[in-house]
User: What shape does this take?
Amino acid sequence: MKTNRTGGAAARLAGVSMAAAGALAAAVPQAASAQQATAQQEMSADEVLMLDPVTVLATRTEELAIDALAAVSVVTEGDLDTIMPTRPAEVFKYVPGVSFSDRGDDPGSSINIRGLQDFGRVAVIVDGARQNFQRSGHGSDGQFYLDPEMLSGAEVVRGPVANIYGSGAIGGVVSFTTKDTDDILRPGERWGALANTLFGTNRGQAMGSLFGAVRPADSYDVAFGASYRTESDYDNGNGERVDNSGNDISSGLAKATFRPADGHEIKLAGLTNRSDYVVGQTTASASAYDTKLQNDTASLRWRYSKPEDRLFDFEGSVYWNRTDMDQTKVGGTSGQISGILGAARNFSIDTAGFDLHNTTRFDTGSFRHAFTYGADFFNDQVSTNDPTGASDLSTPSGERSVYGGFLQWKLNHADWFELITAARYDGYELSGGGNSSEGDRISPKVTLGITPLPWLTVYGTYAEGYRAPAVTETLVAGAHPGYAPGIPSLFTFVPNPALQPEVGKTKEIGFNIRKDDLFKKGDALRAKINVFRNDVENYIEIFTYGDPVTWCPVTFPGCPPVPVVTINDYSLAQYRNIPEAVIEGFEFEGRYDAGGWYLRLTAQWMEGRNVIDDLALLSIPSDRIVTAAGIRLLDRKLTVEASWTAARYDHVPDGYTYTAAYNLVDIYVGYQPTPDVLLHAAVTNLLDEYYLPIPVAQPDMILATAAPGLAFKGGLKIRFGG
Assistant: This one.
């Protein structure tokens, strides 16, 4: 079943586009004055634009990302302008160790860090609120829904070194920040607007957004905005149309910031996302569902920080997030598993939580101390409603509460010694379906960094992380229906209340390189290199066992004993603990900027295995190298960049379809005549390569997983204010 999503959607896009067009007309005089005001500040082609981004993700204390003793990466607004992302996976193009197991017919994203994904192994945070939506099926078991147009940036820390940031993140933490007043207004401005448009081929894509902000006084400001994105079905590299890969996404945000006293900041934020799409490949005899997904987030944050106050550097936040998915069957055969055409089902999760932490600083002689301590909590309420009963089995309803606290000591001496020690306490309670489980643990962390040369820092880390089992892993129970009436159950899910939490134990050696004036005055080199090994105790994976399931059609004479048909190789399935799994690898992230030109290189290699059975882990991503070269012309107003991604899969378990190796070439051109106007365009997958980004087990998923082929996109971004 194919759905045309460009007709009615065009009217909605037109409204956004007309608003953006009005903004463009009003912006011309503003842009001209901005150009005159900043002309004397423009850099020559020999000067370097590289600015070191700031992060707080690894230690909750502000520091430059290049100086952080952790595998931290920051995606800036400038990166987003160059990448021109249409979904979250593209945001992390130049970040090693981060992959996505997305499918073309679902705009949701499932993130993988260092071979760990699903069920909260990676903590996904948007404006401080955790995104815990999970639905089991023929795909990933954890997704989040976010339009990149709403973002001002993103941070990633790989591995459980950020265990102080919250429970469960044995793979790492991804923190997204949406647009705010400072992304729209320049210093001294009281009002402003930011408009953006994008159009592209292959997906037949179009996007329009408009954001505004007002700051009547320095004591408060308000930011608001909306975006609309529409995409039609795309063709993969073989020229095959991927059914139901089109979607319509509407997003909006509103933020209000108050500064009632010196050093105090209170922020109210709301974010909404509405995704309308059809998921499923009816050409592969799979069911298709018209899907309407609503994701809403609300948060309240209070921050207090004054340079002269070394006792209190406080931040506290409370948040609520709800993801609600309504699906109606619109394609495929009728059966016990998926119901008849027109059958409806619903998945929803409500997450509420808080996060509090404070940093106290003091000195003893030449040693600088920073003690950071805090507590956090979240509660998941999972609800599934499916008249067929199938979804209630694979994604059972239930409740989980996860809580914890931490203490971290950061010690610095001069500019060459840094020691970070931390301990985190985690606990959880889970119930549903007449079953329950609970547990707790203390997880330590220690990092030692030495700077033997002004441009080189070497560090070593040992960190542990703790992940409580998810509702589905613990409570899933019941018979998986047969394919049609009369056919017996394919297998039976068996709950496991005795399921033990996972414990990740990471050993890591890292090198931070920061060198200016390397080959010429004004150039800059930045690089982070990491070698790691994560020993995961009690790794949770689904096991199948039991006698084969056979069927003897009653319409056949002499049945039994013949004919007997084997319809499944096993009769039982249960999530169990693997005593030990090992994931180890190497990551490199670097950039050299000479002003008039620059180079970027990221690389990752990793392997993972079930130590007991010596079997490869399916979740291990491809080995990958991404190189990019750019040149700046016309007094830096014109940027041209070419990038090449080379990926290779190895050690994939038997029974999976995958692309052993593939190469992607992208071209970007951006022209910025003034600081407030950007006209840019890109060509993605220039070689029109066919590839599957991840291995696929289910035949009906192959077409849905194939990535888009050659595509062109272009857009205009403009800002004005006064």
